[in-house]
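Materials and Methods. Structural model of Ubiquitin carboxyl-terminal hydrolase MINDY. The 112-residue sequence of Ubiquitin carboxyl-terminal hydrolase MINDY from Aramus guarauna was retrieved and submitted for structure prediction as follows.
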Amino acid sequence: QVSRGLRTPRLPVWLCSVAGRHSVLFGTDGRLLSDWRAERVFHLYLYNGQREQARTARLTIDTHSHHWEEAPREEPCADPRSPGNSRPSMEMAIRTKWAGATVSWNGTDPFF
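The predicted structure was written out as tokens:
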């Protein structure tokens, strides 16, 4: 029998498989599960258990930002599919839940 805590988690947790690597994406704010207003700007933590990850990455998700508020690119009209303009796979996975959100890696080099 599954315990009530597993059926209804108290904190948001996602098990991810991105680019063939498994990881855990989780938040420490339980309001993300029940209050849509908590989804404006919030933090998620990413852990993949690989040797190259020295510590859990803290990501800041902003769901009300706009693409024109992001840091300017060298070529503003460049094709977003080109290698120089691509986004990390984990950011794209996060955007399947929060479309259009900006993701800040807070100084950590994106490893996905």
